[in-house]
Design brief:
267 residues; alpha+beta; Alpha-Beta Plaits; Barwin-like endoglucanases; 2 domains; 6-stranded mixed barrel; 4-stranded antiparallel sheet; 13 strands; 27% helix
């Protein structure tokens, strides 16, 4: 009798384990379908390009003139800015430079390196032009990390964060034949190599476990290590396409499936 009861118990446990495994498999397959449609059946739609140069005063940075890019090829976003300082001072940024907290620079999740941005503090009206040379902030809900020097200029050092508007700028030159002003060629602000971070773990094995689920489902998924408050985290990134539009659709799908902290990041 005892032996029969034990076998019955083991059978129930095995059945439950199989059910959980099947449910996890079904969940990932459903997510795959959502991401598949995001990749292959969603196309970017932009307004017709407008090359007219605005008539306002330019932003002059080291004798170079910059204006907000036309909406069809530019980038504009409103959200929360934060700043980073001393504990990163001297560390290597994502584009290979040494971070100098006193310089005027910024970290952004997706914009190409060296993009020039106008940052407007919506709380006090102060503004500054910064150059993107790093990736971050690695937190959902924040759109830009300013260097200490930039944060001081727009008055957010004490508060730590502020609501800002960021606008991509393009450099202007005079056409040698017509004499008219025009924008210089610049990187496409809506194309890149995009991932969505779906988890960050203190224990590597937990990150590897989530990575395996997506790899088994056929998705290119990588582990990136990151130091947050001097503690190592294993961040899981799943590849979501080469356009920002695709990436945003995939991010939305992942959020709807319970990955609440998911956010887009460009390699």
């Amino acid at each position: 009798m005892k032996s029969g009861f034990k076998n019955s118990s083991n059978l129930k446990m095995e059945t439950t384990s199989n059910m959980i495994s099947r449910l996890n498999h079904i969940f990932i397959r459903c997510l795959c379908i959502l991401l598949f449609y995001s990749f292959y059946f969603c196309s970017d739609s932009f307004a017709s390009k407008n090359k007219d140069i605005p008539t306002q005063r330019p932003y002059i940075i080291q004798k170079h003139k910059y204006y907000p890019l036309p909406s069809a090829e530019g980038y504009r976003e409103t959200g929360i800015a934060s700043w980073y300082g001393r504990k990163f001072h001297g560390h290597t940024t994502s584009n290979g430079e040494k971070y100098n907290m006193y310089d005027i620079s910024a970290a952004h999740k997706t914009l190409p390196m060296h993009t020039m941005l106008l940052v407007k503090n919506q709380d006090n009206g102060k503004q500054i032009v910064v150059r993107v040379n790093d990736r971050g902030p690695f937190v959902r809900g924040r759109i830009i990390d300013l260097s200490y020097g930039a944060a001081k200029k727009v008055g957010i050092v004490k508060s730590g964060t502020a609501r800002v508007e960021i606008i991509a700028l393009g450099e202007v030159k005079n056409d040698s034949t017509t004499g008219k002003r025009q924008f210089k060629k610049h990187a496409d602000l809506r194309k890149g190599e995009y991932f969505v971070q779906i988890g960050a773990f203190r224990k590597e094995k937990n990150g590897r476990g989530l990575q395996k689920r997506f790899l088994d489902a056929g998705f290119h998924t990588v582990i990136k290590t990151s130091n947050i408050k001097k503690e190592a985290f294993y961040c899981v990134w799943v590849y979501v396409g080469q356009t920002l539009h695709m990436a945003r659709r995939s991010e939305k799908a992942l959020l709807s499936k319970g990955y609440k902290g998911a956010f887009i990041i460009a390699r």
